[in-house]
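Q: I'm writing up a methods section and want to include an example of the input and output format. Could you take the sequence below and give the corresponding predicted structure tokens, formatted cleanly so I can copy it straight into the document?
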Amino acid sequence: MVGLGTIVNIGTVLAGTTVGLLLKNGLPGRFERTITQALGLCTFFIGIGGAVSGLVTVSGGALGTQHTMLLVLCMMLGALIGEALDIERRLAGLGAWCQARFAGGEDSRFVEGFVTASLLFCVGAMAIVGSLEDGLNGDPTILVAKAILDGVAAIVFAASLGKGVYLSVLALGVYQGGITLLAGAIRPWLSDALISQISCIGSVLIFALGFNLMFDKKVKVGNLLPAMFLPIVFYFLGRFWPALGAL
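A: Here is the clean output for your methods example:
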């Protein structure tokens, strides 16, 4: 069944969020900050691992780097586009509207839970590759594996950030479901190298999420989202200007 992987993924996030809320309600308030920092620390190193695997190469026993200029250009241009569109404010506005509609305004971290969980669940190679496999071959294996990981993460997110994590299933369904439905049309254009580049930049954004959680800072990760898709632009431009393809 095409789309089964995304359905399972949504189900595990909903279940994990429910378990996390039960844990949250049974814990004293002083635990919340420590849980948030632990979550930030894990997210921090997930991001580091993904970024390093995409940027660092080993050849003949020597370490090297690749795609660093692409990363810099994509992040800079992505920030400009994201700020111009003010994506972070729009995401926060959607979260605030849903909070007023469904949470009654009593959950002070509703918007943060929605935005942070949505970004973490949608950013990464497993979401892209798994959705393509599901759409092209009807094979949900990768997304089912991702679903288990996301379900565990949802427990921790909900225990720390509250009911806003429930809303992340909307972003998850649109993103993964969209890729699954369009898989036949977009797969010929997505090489393994291009998927790796997108995933690498996504990992940097995950790193920023961890930074926000760990140090209670506010890197506008939502406004950096366009950076994830700019490797596609450089890939096609590289067909006409080889220097861009070599970034």
